[in-house]
Amino acid sequence: MPSTEVKKDRVGIDCVHYINGEYVHSKSGETFENPNPATEEILGTVAVGGKEEVDEAVSVARKALKGEWADMPSRKRSNVIRKIGDLILERHEELATLESLDTGKPLWLSKSVDIDRAANNFHFFADYLTTVGTETYQQDDKAIHYAVRKPTGVVGLINPWNLPLFLLTWKLAPALAAGNTVVMKPSEVTPMTATVLTEICKEAGVPDGVVNTVHGFGETGAAISSHEDVDGIAFTGETVTGTAIMKAAAPTLKKLSFELGGKNPNIIFADADLDDTIETTIKSSFINQGEVCLCGSRIYVERPIYDEFVERLTAKTKEMKVGDPFEADTNVGAMVSEEHYNKVLSYLDIAKEEGGTFEIGGKAAEGFDKGYYIEPTIITGLGKDSRCVQEEIFGPVVNIVPFDTEEEVLEQVNDTHYGLSASLWTTDFKRAHRVAGKIETGMVWINTWFLRDLRTPFGGTKHSGIGREGGMHSFEFYSELTNITIKL
Ligand SMILES: NC(=O)c1ccc[n+]([C@@H]2O[C@H](COP(=O)([O-])OP(=O)(O)OC[C@H]3O[C@@H](n4cnc5c(N)ncnc54)[C@H](O)[C@@H]3O)[C@@H](O)[C@H]2O)c1
Ligand SMILES: O=C/C=C/C=C(\O)C(=O)O
Questions:
Q1: Catalytic positions (predicted)?
Q2: Per the structure, how many domains does the chain have?
Q3: Residue 176: DSSP 8-state
Q4: In Å, how far from its chain's centre is CA 484?
Q5: Could you say which of 60, 63, 102, 482 would form a disulfide bridge with 190 (CB–CB 3.0 to 4.6 Å)?
């Protein structure tokens, strides 16, 4: 059993697998070290799960689909799920600390976004499950047709590092609500909060075998994706990983839910409320070090306000503090890993080569002996085919472009393989509605960004995803319908 007590000196935890209600090491004994990206200190070790651990986890998850979990009345299952949310709130400080140690994100952000939302994911689906219904049709005097809902089965949940507990629980809560059993694979970069979560699940009354975690790298995820006894994979991560998972899952025809990368546009018309726009654009550009799939990294500004917008956004960016995630006034923490830090810096070199101008930033932040800090960066002057405009950087880097007409901006906005989200700014609601309908993304926010209601369809089009999460949409993925017809 790992110690999940977070020490005052901010030491992390060792992460081992959780299978059939027990914390277990890998049979191979293989582990790797988990570094704190803000200090480069080692937070603990992480077990590497192989085929043996995945097989064991899938086998116990399959068995747990029957018996206590299947027989649990929905009201009781709802109470267990609600209790997980309650216990997350009880351990709020500890979980937020672990999340910031693992990711490098500011502690205030872990508290106000990641951990609050993780609890809310369980509270929301605890309520949702008690109201969800199915279809019934009466066909004249011939027949009655009705559908009954069953769990999808054993579901693999494969997760990224940017919002570790938030995104893992966004899958786990509906999976449990619909009666599934799961094998989770947290990101190897951020394994700590997932390790604590299973302890919480046990305390809340989730029967052994229902929730299992196997740690490891991509190979561990691949072993889950290709496993013949796994019925579905819910994956959030890079588009190219989604392609690999789809291939691995094809021979066993699994159900797939994909939340993938983005290259999201912000479109700002000259009539927008500029104070409001700038304030939100700072968030959509740099919150969580720009490591949010929804961050707006391509900013299109109508020409009459272009100069003023660039000047004001740059001035606001200058006020941002890059620093220790545990200092209350830090706006931008450390990038999540050395590898990702180098990737983002390589795009800043590409921007230079492609003739871009850095209005601010453009390099590693100064004054840090250790850790992976990058200055919030605003680029102008890049062409539409620039790699920095077309490829997902996933860092505190945005590109601003002027536009003259609606048609022109829509052409540029849609000129991408990605299709996750967009943020559109105008006080003309006819235009807002018209333009929003022509943007090729799964979500459009008008005069706001990342404003969430957990009932709404969340997800991307094109290379940004397959399927939607949220309310009924999550339930559709995590359940199978059997239609029953009674001849009258
Ligand atoms: N659309 C969304 O809702 C959303 C949300 C958050 C992040 N993202 C995307 O996630 C990416 C950042 O996260 P990341 O770098 O952790 O993504 P990633 O694809 O590198 O890794 C995600 C997970 O997949 C696992 N994995 C890697 N190779 C695998 C394979 N071959 N088979 C099975 N599993 C494998 C990893 O170990 C990890 O657990 C960005 O592209 C971002 O846009 C999307
Ligand atoms: O980084 C990606 C953010 C994803 C957010 C959600 O999945 C959500 O708000 O439900």
A1: 259
A2: 2
A3: H
A4: 37
A5: 102
| Whether the complex's predicted ipTM surpasses the cut of 0.90 | yes
Is the whole-model pTM more than 0.90?
yes
Beta pairing, strands 357-360 & 377-380: antiparallel
Say if residue 103 is in the same domain as residue 149. yes
Kindly list the distances between the CA atom of residue 188 and the CA atoms of 48, 145, 284, in Å, as whole numbers in the listed order.
9, 47, 26
Exposure string over 311-345, b if 16+ CB within 10 A, otherwise e: ebbbebbeebebbbbeeeebbbbbbbbeebbeebb
For the chain, the average pLDDT equals: 97
| pLDDT tens-place string over residues 462-483 | 999 999 999 999 999 999 999 9
- pLDDT reading at 291 higher than 80: yes
Whether residues 83 and 141 fall in one domain: yes
How many A from CA of 259 to the centre of ligand 1?
9
Residues with CB under 6 A from ligand 1: 158-162, 167, 185, 187-188, 217-218, 221-222, 225, 236-238, 241, 244-245, 259-262, 293, 392, 394, 420, 460, 464-465
- Looking at all shown ligands, the one closest to residue 393's CA atom is 1
Report the separation in Å between the CA atom of 110 and the middle of ligand 2, taken as the mean of its atom positions: 14
Mean pLDDT, range 452-462, rounded to an integer: 98
Mean pLDDT of 387-401: 98
Residue 459 lies in a domain: no
CATH code for the domain of 376: 3.40.309.10
Read off φ and ψ for residue 332, nearest 5 degrees: -125, 125
For the CA of 242, the nearest atom of ligand 1 = 19
Which positions are annotated as active-site residues? 259
Q: CB within 6 Å of ligand 2 — which residues?
A: 162-163, 167, 170, 292-294, 452, 458
Residue 481 domain boundaries: 17-260+464-487
Q: Are residues 446 and 470 in the same domain?
A: no
The pLDDT tens digits of the residues spanning 146-175 come to: 999 999 999 999 999 999 999 999 999 999
> Are 240 and 255 within 8 A, CB to CB?
no
Rounded distance from Cα 167 to ligand 2 centre (Å)? 7
Query: Which pLDDT does position 256 carry in this prediction?
Result: 98
- Model confidence pLDDT, tens digit, residues 168-210: 999 999 999 999 999 999 999 999 999 999 999 999 999 999 9
Rg (CA), the chain: 23
Residue 58 lies in a domain: yes
Residues 474 and 448 in one domain: no
5 domain residue, yes or no = no
